[in-house]
Structure formats: C-alpha cells, structure tokens
Amino acid sequence: MQRVGEIKVKKVKKEYTLMLVPHHGKGTVWGIRLPMRLVQFTAGILGIVVVGVVVTMLSYRHTMNVASADKAELERLRQVNSVQAQQLEKMAGSTAKLQADMNRLNQLDSDLRRLVSSDESSGTSRSGVVRPNISYKGQGGPAGVKPNIDQINEIIAELQKQVPVREQSLLALRNELEEKIARLAATPSIWPANGDVTSRFGWRTSPWGGNSGDWHPGIDIANDYGTPIVATANGVVIYSGWYSGYGNMVEIDHGNGIVTIYGHNEKILVHVGQKVRKGETISYMGSTGLSTGPHVHYEVRVNGTAVNPAKFL
C-alpha cells in the first residue's frame, strides 16, 4: 500500500558556537558549541550573582556608614559624659564647700552669742540643723566614690531652706549686738579729762580748812586751765550753764536713768538738746563756782542718786 503525503519534521537545535581564531589566519580554528539553554542558564546565574554582590556591597556600605555614625555619636556622648562628670564633681566640691561655710557661720553665730550674753538661753542659735553629707574624690571621701546627683540636690535643697533661717538668726544677732553696743556707748566708761585725782567719792576733809569734813558726791581731776573735758558716754545735754557752787556746769542724760555732771568749767562748748558722743569735747577746764583751782568735778548719778564714778572707769 502506498503512503501519500508523508511529511518529515527535523528538530533544529539552537546553540551558540564559540570560535577561537588565531591571528593572521594561521593555525587551527577551534570551535565550542554551547546549547542555548546552557548559555541562558549561565547568564541567569551570573545575573543573580551580580545582583547579590551589588546588594551585598550596598548593604555593607550602608552598614559601615551607620557604624561610623554610631561610633561618632558614641564618641560625642563619651565626651559629653566626661564633661558632665567633671561638672558634677566640681558641683559636688562647691556644694561641700558651701556646706562647710554654712557650718562655720553656725559656729560663728554661736560664738558671737556667747560673747553678747553669758545667758545661752536668751541667745540660742536656731541654726543647729543636721544636714546630709556626701563623699567625693579629692575632698576627704573614699577613693573611687563619685558624687551622686540626688545627694547634691538634697544638700542644695537643705541649704536653700537654711538661708532664711540663717538670715533671721543673724539679723536677730545684729539687733542684739547693736543694742548692746548702744548700751555700752551710753554707759560712762572713760575719764572725763587728763590730770590728777585730788578728791575721791565719799567723805573727805574740807578743802577750805577746818576740822569738819564734807560729803563729796563725785571725783575731782585737776590740771591746767583749758584742759579739754570730754563726754564719758553718748547722750543728750540736758543742762548747760551756771549752777550755784558747780560754776559753769554741763549735765548729760545717757538714758537708762544714768546722768553725768561736769562742773567748774572755764568754757562750755555744748548746748541743751545737743547730742554728744563718747570722747567728744564738751568744755574746757576752769575754776568757776566753789573751787580752789582748775579742775573738773565729775559725778555719775543713777536714777537721781550719786554713785562712785570709779565703778564705771
């Protein structure tokens, strides 16, 4: 039986030929046939490898950049931390010094109050508060102990609380000192003039002769005419002028019931109502009134009663 119309199909292989041709056409020409699929597969693998390498390089570069930035930031933070640590330690030292200064003020307050008055109950310092202590290197604390910010803040807060207490205590002490200074300044305590004491306080032989004696309510200090006579304490002049046997007399009120009298002056320099200070010249020595020669008759009276001036000198 005869076959009609038979068609034969031949499969054509796709491939690449790699030829190696010598220079100048001399020598053998080599050829290598590579299937299309092998070339495509190899090209795909190479493409994947290239992409992987590129991605890896980019990732590595990014990682290195981040690491470099992190390193720079870490170094900056270390520097900042170092500076802050130094500042904190310096702050701790300053705070400790401030606390020591406050303690010295407390001690000074106590010492001054003991000088002002022997009665401690009337001048007790209100500054005796127990304050926290801190330890830090270089200021007496154990080596290696670093200042703690909470401790420093606690001390600062405590010192801030102590400021108004210290202020009130020192203001009260100042007022007390001013009052005592004023009392001392108003208390006769110096000689009214230079010279020789010719008569003392109490009974004496009459300077005008005879066997009778008289009561002398002050002391007499003799010197030359014109010798300066000074106020023996701060006060206000309540009399200035002639007064019977005292001659030219000055009387000064020092407050607290204390009055001083200066008699037999040659010349008076002050007037009634004038304020005078201790050591200020108020007159010049003379021999006016009942007097046997140039001298000053000096009296101290307390609540109107003459007392021995020697107790005030």
UniProtKB/TrEMBL annotation:
Annotated segments matching region Disordered: 115-142
Highest taxon in the source lineage: Bacteria
Keyword Transmembrane helix: yes
Keywords: Membrane, Transmembrane, Transmembrane helix
Ranges for domain M23ase beta-sheet core: 216-309
One Gene Ontology MF term: metalloendopeptidase activity
Keyword Membrane: yes
Biased composition (Low complexity): 118-127
Transmembrane segments: 38-60
Name of the protein in its database record: Peptidase m23
